[in-house]
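Hey, can you fold this?
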Amino acid sequence: QVQLVESGGGLVQPGGSLRLSCAASGSIFSINAMGWHRQAPGKQRELVAYITSGGSTNYADSVRGRFTISRENAKNTVTLQMSSLKPEDTAVYYCHVYIRLESGGLGGYWGQGTQVTVSA
């Protein structure tokens, strides 16, 4: 019904940059919010950043000033530009969307996750 395609994960050196993208498709009427969460080994999944349909953004304190989230509404995509990466940013990053379906219902959907590894 709804599909999320994530891209951009990989290995990067500390201080480097990486860009994650997530594209949503399917029976979507509108996207209320779209963003990224991450889960590091031994830790709970945590919010990284999200952006609402109105353009409001929210960032985890640990990434504020280094990460930038943006969206292309016409393409139902969200992008996370990550800069000044640190080893502590190493995690599996998950795209999440909260969607108004064409049927009128509401639903939240997770991507499969993409690995980001920050290491020298």
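Oh, and this one too while you're at it.
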Amino acid sequence: QVQLVESGGGLVQPGGSLRLSCAASGRIFNIYTMDWYQQAPGKQRELVCTTDGRSITNCADSVKGRFTISRDNAKNTVYLQINSAKPEDTAVYYCHAELSDYIDYLRRSYWGQGTQVTVSS
């Protein structure tokens, strides 16, 4: 069974740093994309940063220069490095991936359970 398990959330002071991790488990054949979304209370879930199959990365303008997404393909893991954290970064962060497994090689979409990030002094 394919699962995405997130970790690394918590409380951080404004200006501080935090690194989120998302590990994909299961009999994975190929990972096409791995992404991070954020959802603040009362708001829509929004794409924050994304990677493609070649690990080309891109982030939303609101976080560009502060957030960095990276992948470790050997561990099937994607990271979100948050630097210079701002209170408006407070949200639940969700990992998302589109991948195939060794059973049928079909591309499917998966979501992590979410991890809370709170930026406050």
